[in-house]
């Protein structure tokens, strides 16, 4: 069993709070992704799980053991870093074997274990090379091979793809997903890339400023963001967010009006909707305002308005033509709208 629990974990340096009350139960075999902007506390959380950073307050449990006071090497966790962390003077074979030597795995088992890991990361033909003789993608596969060689109970991966070019990132991402589904090892994966998070995760933890903002499946996070931060962080383009007033289910903002909203509250609210849920119309649109810009994307165009200070975008069909300042309308179905409290940012 490799259930991993973080119970009210805090990390403070003096008065600065790096991780604030992180409380989460990660299931055996789960692929959990920590997602958030730079500086939100993802790496610090990982380092506390690995034992590389002391916990200021709270407990970390691995299976039925509280591991706060265990050395990193005694936690049975493997970590893969963005920077690969390979030994330059060792061959691929020796790099992958390294954890077996550290952990005093009997020598006669090494060859079989290294070969098995090398096969899984497709490095059988490179075993005699040194890291300098490999591409970035191959180096990262060595790091992965080294992480899986001794079947740890938990994998920690800290932005393992961020040094790879876009194409390699996509294929290595698929490989990581495939590896994890074969190995069924509980995995915590850190990224600031929401596409990576959405494609890899069983569940995503969205963090900001040291705090968990939302925990959910990729679909839950995308379809029902818990607050304005999550709404604006997930999705490409990000969710459109407009300020206005809500009265008896009618939202009114500058250049935008939506009726039939299911909400009891009245007062200042933020209305959110995704570009893909709205469409350009000729009449009776919820938005009716002069446009701020129009961008040709090839297969479609993106029409953007400036509504009360917020930029709001909707896709238009390929043949759509308009000039800046032309009044253009868009239809937004009420059931595709999200409402947030403008003051707290929380979902209504
Ligand atoms: N040793 C330290 N002393 C003081 N503050 C630190 C220390 N290490 C990290 N921090 C601060 O803690 C916060 C969280 O850092 P962390 O590295 O966990 O962020 P992150 O989400 O992983 O960011 P990135 O994506 O840029 O790696 C940051 O504001 C950082 O400056």
Key descriptive features of the protein:
single chain; 348 residues; alpha+beta; Rossmann fold; OB fold (Dihydrolipoamide Acetyltransferase, E2P); 2 domains; six-stranded mixed β-sheet; 20 strands; binds adenosine-5'-triphosphate
Overview of this protein structure:
The chain is of the alpha+beta class and 348 residues long. It has 2 domains: 4-232, 3-Layer(aba) Sandwich (Rossmann fold); 237-341, Nucleic acid-binding proteins (OB fold (Dihydrolipoamide Acetyltransferase, E2P), Beta Barrel), CATH 2.40.50.140. It contains 8 helices and 20 strands. The longest helix is centred in the middle third of the chain and has 18 residues, at 166-183. The radius of gyration is 24 Å and the shape is elongated. The two termini are 38 Å apart. 37% of the residues are buried. The mean pLDDT is 93. Adenosine-5'-triphosphate (ATP) binds next to strand 2 and helix 1. The site of adenosine-5'-triphosphate (ATP) has 12 residues, from strand 2 and helix 1.
């Amino acid at each position: 069993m490799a259930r991993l629990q973080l119970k009210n974990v805090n990390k403070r340096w003096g008065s600065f709070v790096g991780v604030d009350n992180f409380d989460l139960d990660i299931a055996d075999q789960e692929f959990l992704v920590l997602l958030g902007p730079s500086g939100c506390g993802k790496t610090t959380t990982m380092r506390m799980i690995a034992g590389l950073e002391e916990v200021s307050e709270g407990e970390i449990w691995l299976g039925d053991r509280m591991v706060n006071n265990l050395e990193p090497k005694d936690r049975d966790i493997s970590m893969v870093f963005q920077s690969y962390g390979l030994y330059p003077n060792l061959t691929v074979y020796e790099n992958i074997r390294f954890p077996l030597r550290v952990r005093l795995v009997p020598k006669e088992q090494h060859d079989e274990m290294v070969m098995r890991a090398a096969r899984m990361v497709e490095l059988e033909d490179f075993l005699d090379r040194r890291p300098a003789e490999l591409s970035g993608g191959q180096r990262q596969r060595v790091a992965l091979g080294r992480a899986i060689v001794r079947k740890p109970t938990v994998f920690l991966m800290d932005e393992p793809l961020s040094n790879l070019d876009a194409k390699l990132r996509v294929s290595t991402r698929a490989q990581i997903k495939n590896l994890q589904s074969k190995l069924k090892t509980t995995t915590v994966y850190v990224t600031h890339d929401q596409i990576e998070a959405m494609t890899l995760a069983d569940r995503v933890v969205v963090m900001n400023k040291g705090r968990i903002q939302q925990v959910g499946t990729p679909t839950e996070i995308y379809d029902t963001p818990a607050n304005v931060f999550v709404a604006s962080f997930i999705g490409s383009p990000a969710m459109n967010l407009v300020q206005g007033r809500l009265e008896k289910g009618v939202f009114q903002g500058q250049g935008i009006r939506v009726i039939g909203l299911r909400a009891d509250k009245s007062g200042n609210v933020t209305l959110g909707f995704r570009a893909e849920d709205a469409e350009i119309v000729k009449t009776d649109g919820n938005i009716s305002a002069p446009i701020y810009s129009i961008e040709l994307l090839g297969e479609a165009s993106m029409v953007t308005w400036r509504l009360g200070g917020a930029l709001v975008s909707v896709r238009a069909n390929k043949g759509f033509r308009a000039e800046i300042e032309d009044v253009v309308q868009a239809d937004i179905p009420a059931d595709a709208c999200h409402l947030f409290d403008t003051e707290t940012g929380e979902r209504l």
